[in-house]
Amino acid sequence: MFNFLSGLLLCLFMSFQWVVADEISQAKFSERYDNRTLYLQNSIIGYNHVLNGKLLPAGFFGERLNPYMKQYPEVNSEFHRSINYQVSGLLLNLGSVLYYSMNKEKDKAPWISFTGLIFGISFSIRGSNQLEKAVWLYNKKTLLQE
User: Fold this and answer.
1) Which of 47, 138, 128, 40 is nearest to 84 (CA)?
2) Mean pLDDT of the region 16-34
3) Are 77 and 62 in contact (CB under 8 A)?
4) How far apart are CA 22 and CA 32, in angstroms?
5) pLDDT score of 18
6) How many Å apart are CA 94 and CA 120, to the nearest integer?
7) What pLDDT digit, counting tens, does each position of 43-88 carry?
8) CB burial class (10 A; 0-12, 13-18, 19+) of residue 103?
9) Which residues on adjacent β-strands are paired with residue 101?
10) C-alpha to C-alpha distance for 59 and 93, rounded to whole angstroms
11) Rounded mean pLDDT of 98-116?
């Protein structure tokens, strides 16, 4: 009888410790979630981001997010890949418009410009998606950090 009662008390004590530890880890997680996660917002020129309840500019390509992204190598590579795609898309779009404006009379100029614009737009969309992925990875690594 004594072994059964001591075993029951031991189980209750262990479960109480587990619940308390779980509440502490939930409090840490909530604090991290509220204070360290990034949220992107599109604006007319570039991006804004929300961190710790404050709305801050993120730059045209999101370059002001660099200090946060440097903390994790995988996130940093995704972030720089997004900037490369966005800059390539912008250069292709500008180059296509300039090419068309300089060669309006030629037969192939509209098609070449149109093709450049399609590639430029797709690169810009890909860069925007990469930036969202980099922010998602940053938030994931920040929240799961011990």
Assistant:
1) 128
2) 63
3) no
4) 15
5) 47
6) 9
7) 777 788 888 888 888 888 888 888 888 999 999 999 999 999 999 9
8) middle
9) none
10) 19
11) 87
CB-side neighbour CA atoms (13 Å) of 98: 6
User: What are the structure tokens assigned to 105, written together?
Assistant: 């009379």
Distance set, CA 62 to CA 3, 23, 54, 84, 95 (Å): 64, 36, 16, 11, 22
CA distances from 41 to 15, 79, 131, 135 (A): 43, 16, 11, 11
Q: Which of 122, 131, 114 is nearest to 64 (CA)?
A: 131
How far apart CA 83 and CA 124 sit, in angstroms, is: 9
Cβ atoms of 61 and 127 closer than 8 Å: yes
Rounded-to-integer distance, Cα 85 and Cα 128, Å: 8
CA–CA dist 141, 135 (Å, integer): 10
Report residue 76 as tokens. 């940093």
The pair of structure tokens assigned to 24 is: 């502490």
Place of tokens 């999101």: 62
CB atoms under 10 Å from CB of 66, counted, come to 14
